[in-house]
């Protein structure tokens, strides 16, 4: 039977160690994107493999409504103090999209439990929160939504800070406040009593190539949400688990969300793990068993064992601090070596989540026409040279813009 491949003519992967991937023809690649910004602890870490295998040997699978597990309790206990939520409760799933779906349902369940019929979710333009229908509905990336528009429904989208092409640079207090005002208007238009949640990435990932919002943005946005009883959902699927030089990117802004989603770095690619996390207040309001929801593979013991081993590796090897240090080095080098290149418009990011925006004209910041397929060409050329990058979208001014993301394993050395 054919494999419905995600792209034509792919090389076949043979093995990987550290930051290196090797294909079956013996070609070596530097994994500068950790796959889809997934691999934090590096490839081929024996103790993570062993933790997953040991759990699978004990018991690989029971249904999450029939049994809890010690390993999941242990994982939750070690994860809790690292999360930017008060008294958090975790709902483990199989990936980022499932985590977002779960968080959306938690938001709805929270309001229903309080006797409020809220269902509208506010997302942001240019954002990406997953490809399942609920997560795609919240996502703002037009190209991904386009084929499925008839299926997409009640989510509405507000503006997002994008410093490189900010339309608000005349505001006396910085553009973050303008975006918070926009959010408040979006909530007002939707009917504040109907709005359940606001979903956003603390630092934008693929949708805007590692755009960091101005400092005044998150405090103002959280204040607007709290005033209208709207839950704040921090989507940390890409930014979580040390990627930006903090355990979670919310920390950069002193933000305490009501709900948080994670995935990717949580199990570093060794297991398909996603997490939806609720604050103590949201959890207690819904109550254990109060969420009409569930997946066959949620609360998986092998996922918990893998996540625990990854967490310990990140913590015991100081990889979160390493991400901050190596990230500053990487962004510095990119600016130094490529900063004058006529096609490099911007180098930005936080920690080891670094975006490079490509433009046809630096002075006017004019993007390349889409027909040039610049991102695709750059990715292919880099791969030819043995360098793996991840595609992203540039800051938008009506067109999508070209950009690439660098997000190597956090174990990358200064020399690498
Ligand atoms: N949320 C964010 C911010 C993401 O970057 C992604 C994936 O890129 C997702 C959600 C969806 O995660 P997954 O692909 O694991 O379903």
Automatic annotation (TrEMBL):
Keywords for the protein's UniProt record, in alphabetical order: Pyridoxal phosphate
SUPFAM superfamilies reported in the protein's UniProt record: PLP-dependent transferases
Family matches, as CDD domains: OAT_like
GO molecular-function term, one example from the UniProt record: transaminase activity
Nucleotide-binding as UniProt keyword: no
Pfam families: Aminotran_3 (PF00202)
Homology family: Belongs to the class-III pyridoxal-phosphate-dependent aminotransferase family.
Protein known as: Adenosylmethionine-8-amino-7-oxononanoate aminotransferase
Source species of the chain: Auraticoccus monumenti
């Amino acid at each position: 039977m054919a494999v419905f491949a995600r792209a034509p003519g792919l090389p076949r992967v043979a093995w990987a160690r550290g930051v290196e991937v090797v294909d079956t023809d013996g070609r070596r690649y530097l994994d500068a994107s950790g796959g889809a910004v997934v691999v934090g602890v590096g490839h081929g870490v024996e103790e993570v493999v062993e933790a997953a295998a040991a759990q699978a040997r004990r018991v690989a699978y029971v249904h999450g409504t029939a049994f809890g597990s010690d390993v999941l309790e242990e994982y939750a206990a070690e994860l809790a103090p690292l999360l930017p939520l008060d008294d958090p409760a975790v709902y483990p799933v199989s990936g980022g999209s499932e985590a977002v779906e779960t968080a959306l349902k938690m938001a709805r369940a929270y309001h229903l439990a309080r006797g409020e019929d809220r269902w509208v979710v506010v997302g942001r333009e240019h954002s990406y929160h997953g490809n399942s229908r609920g997560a795609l509905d919240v996502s703002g990336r037009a190209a991904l939504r386009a084929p499925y528009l008839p299926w997409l429904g009640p989510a509405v989208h507000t503006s997002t800070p994008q410093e490189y092409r900010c339309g608000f640079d005349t505001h006396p207090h910085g553009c973050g406040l303008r975006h918070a005002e926009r959010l408040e208007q979006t909530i007002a238009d939707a009917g504040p009593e109907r709005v359940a949640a606001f979903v956003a990435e603390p630092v934008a990932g693929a949708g805007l190539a590692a755009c960091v919002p101005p400092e005044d943005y998150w405090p103002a946005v959280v204040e607007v949400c709290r005033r209208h009883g709207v839950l704040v959902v921090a989507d940390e699927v890409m930014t979580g688990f040390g990627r930006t030089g903090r355990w979670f990117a919310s920390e950069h802004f002193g933000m305490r969300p009501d709900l948080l989603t994670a995935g990717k770095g949580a199990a570093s690619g060794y297991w398909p793990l996603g997490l939806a996390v609720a604050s103590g207040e949201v959890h207690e309001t819904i109550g254990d068993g109060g969420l009409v929801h569930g997946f066959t593979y949620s609360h998986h013991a092998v996922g918990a064992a893998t996540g625990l081993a990854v967490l310990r590796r990140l913590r015991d090897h100081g990889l979160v601090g390493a991400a901050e240090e190596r990230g500053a080095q990487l962004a510095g080098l990119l600016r130094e070596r490529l900063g004058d290149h006529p096609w490099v418009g911007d180098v930005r990011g936080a920690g080891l989540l670094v975006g490079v925006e490509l433009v046809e004209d630096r002075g006017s910041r004019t993007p390349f026409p889409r027909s040039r397929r610049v991102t695709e060409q750059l990715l292919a050329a880099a791969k030819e040279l043995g360098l793996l990058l991840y595609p992203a979208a540039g800051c938008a001014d009506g067109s999508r813009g070209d950009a690439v993301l660098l997000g190597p394993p956090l174990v990358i050395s200064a020399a690498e």
